């Protein structure tokens, strides 16, 4: 099966396969110099990027003009020159044209662990998005440099919660709940941030008795939090928070949503007092595209199909699916299935098409018939990878992601709590 990028280049108006934006055909550097910060074509293209979102300067023309073959030759040569001095990490959602160079491919939890598994490597080149590279910086050694090939590869969901709004929310909650623990020693509220968040928010959790979770350990982390607190403030992904808490038996009416633009998040004091999980008003625009109608159609067209979706999907989609789980869960479910199985998958298209190519013994397709990759993962292209690797060989570290100590220390506390929390 062709890569997503090849598929996109072949899409013609009026044809059977459609994409969400014709601009996906363009090289990502065409968007680096946009006058307003934007996520670029793909599922997050209509999300508003914060004004202070990192921008990527234009990379040298030699990389923008190089053919695919030349970039391939240069990246392989750079990798051979650097040897063990370099490790390249790739998230499952990254395009195939970049994943082919990764030394390790995984979900955000596995990549966080991989970042600390190679203390000998001087450079960790992270082919994923900004919060993942920050996490790698937090978990790697002080002499290691983490490099994000394109600084514009952020995450629109992570950007939906910022430190100022979360601090403001926290102050309102403290005013309402006070800070005293109850008779069993549980504090009024524990902050839990999804891995998909800035290092500043991880630091906030570290400082306020909180913790980080990923989609592969969210239930374990919520249990950890409920042992220590009467309630949880969960940010930024409302869907992961709701889906996980609901599966643990928390009733929907005890999960108010916090809209940072409204006083008390748009709730009355009673609802916040009665809350078990306060859900931040954030979402992933990739996973928001999946619908129950797509699942109904998959079941009608493929009797016996196994529908697996990522827990960032809205609750009705998770409820209508057979299973929900992290990217690694999806991968393992497919690997363990008997040959001849049919899967309809609700997650990012690059991962789904790669799984389909790797498993010809199964029928695997994406629930969403429209090709619409994660806009920010898509901003990384071999041209940027060749640029950062050759710069490193020349002694220059470009696009280094480095978290300041005042944030890194508490953020590591929250991450270490997560790594220590056992299911
Ligand atoms: P995973 O933790 O499953 O890798 O998901 C990360 C992500 O960004 C999903 O949108
Ligand atoms: Fe962020 Fe969604 Fe892309 Fe994951 S898929 S990196 S949550 S925008």
TrEMBL record:
Residues bound to [4Fe-4S] cluster are 155, 284, 374
Q: Cofactor note, please?
A: Binds 1 [4Fe-4S] cluster per subunit.
Q: What does the record give as its pathway?
A: Cofactor biosynthesis; NAD(+) biosynthesis; quinolinate from iminoaspartate: step 1/1
Chain residues that bind iminosuccinate: 91, 108, 194-196, 215, 310-312, 327
Highest taxon of the lineage? Bacteria
Which reactions are catalysed by this chain? iminosuccinate + dihydroxyacetone phosphate = quinolinate + phosphate + 2 H2O + H(+)
Q: Return the EC number.
A: 2.5.1.72
Keyword Zinc-finger, does the record have it?
no
Q: Which InterPro entries match?
A: NadA (IPR003473), NadA_sf (IPR036094), Quinolinate_synth_A_type3 (IPR023515)
Q: Which cofactor does it need?
A: [4Fe-4S] cluster
Keyword Iron-sulfur appears in the UniProt entry: yes
Q: Top enzyme class of this protein?
A: transferase
A Pfam family (short name) is: NadA
Give a short account of what the protein does: Catalyzes the condensation of iminoaspartate with dihydroxyacetone phosphate to form quinolinate.
The record's PANTHER family line, in alphabetical order, gives: QUINOLINATE SYNTHASE, CHLOROPLASTIC, QUINOLINATE SYNTHETASE A
Q: Which family does the record assign?
A: Belongs to the quinolinate synthase family. Type 3 subfamily.
NCBIfam families tied to this protein: nadA (TIGR00550), PRK09375.2-4 (NF006883), PRK09375.2-5 (NF006884)
Name of this protein = Quinolinate synthase
Q: Which organism is it from?
A: Subtercola frigoramans
Tell me the name of the encoding gene: nadA
């Amino acid at each position: 099966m062709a890569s997503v990028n090849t598929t996109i280049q072949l899409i013609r108006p009026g044809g059977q396969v459609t994409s969400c934006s014709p601009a996906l055909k363009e090289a990502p550097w065409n968007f680096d110099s946009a006058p307003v910060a934007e996520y670029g074509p793909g599922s997050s293209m209509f999300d508003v990027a914060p004004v202070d979102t990192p921008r990527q300067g234009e990379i040298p023309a030699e990389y923008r003009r190089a053919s695919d073959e030349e970039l391939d030759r240069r990246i392989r040569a750079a990798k051979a020159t650097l040897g063990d001095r370099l490790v390249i990490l790739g998230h499952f959602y990254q395009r195939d044209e970049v994943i082919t160079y990764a030394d390790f491919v995984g979900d955000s939890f596995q990549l966080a662990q991989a970042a600390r598994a190679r203390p000998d490597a001087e450079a960790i080149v992270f082919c994923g998005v900004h919060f993942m590279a920050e996490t790698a910086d937090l978990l790697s050694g002080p002499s290691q440099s983490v490099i994000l090939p394109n600084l514009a590869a952020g995450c629109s969901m992570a950007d939906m919660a910022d430190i100022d709004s979360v601090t403001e929310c926290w102050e309102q909650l403290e005013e309402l709940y006070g800070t005293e623990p109850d008779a069993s020693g549980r504090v009024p509220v524990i902050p839990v941030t999804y891995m998909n968040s800035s290092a500043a928010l991880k630091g906030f959790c570290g400082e306020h008795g909180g913790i980080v979770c990923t989609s592969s350990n969210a239930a374990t982390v919520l249990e950890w939090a409920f042992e220590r607190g009467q309630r949880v403030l969960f940010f930024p992904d409302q869907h992961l928070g709701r889906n996980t808490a609901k599966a643990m038996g928390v009733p929907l009416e005890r999960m108010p949503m916090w809209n940072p633009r409204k006083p008390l998040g748009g709730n009355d004091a009673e609802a916040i007092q009665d809350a078990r999980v306060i859900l931040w008003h954030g979402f992933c625009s990739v996973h928001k595209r999946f619908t129950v109608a797509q699942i109904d159609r998959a079941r009608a067209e493929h009797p016996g199909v196994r529908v697996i979706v990522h827990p960032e999907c809205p609750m009705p989609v998770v409820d209508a699916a057979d299973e929900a789980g992290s990217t690694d869960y999806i991968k393992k479910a497919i690997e363990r299935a008997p040959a001849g199985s049919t899967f309809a998958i609700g997650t990012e298209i690059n991962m789904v098409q790669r799984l389909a190519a790797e498993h010809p013994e199964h029928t695997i397709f994406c629930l969403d018939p429209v090709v619409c990759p994660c806009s920010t993962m898509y901003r990384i292209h071999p041209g940027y990878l060749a640029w950062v690797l050759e710069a490193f060989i020349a002694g220059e570290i470009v696009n280094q992601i480095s978290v300041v100590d005042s944030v890194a220390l508490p953020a590591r506390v929250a991450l270490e709590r997560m790594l220590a929390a056992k299911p």
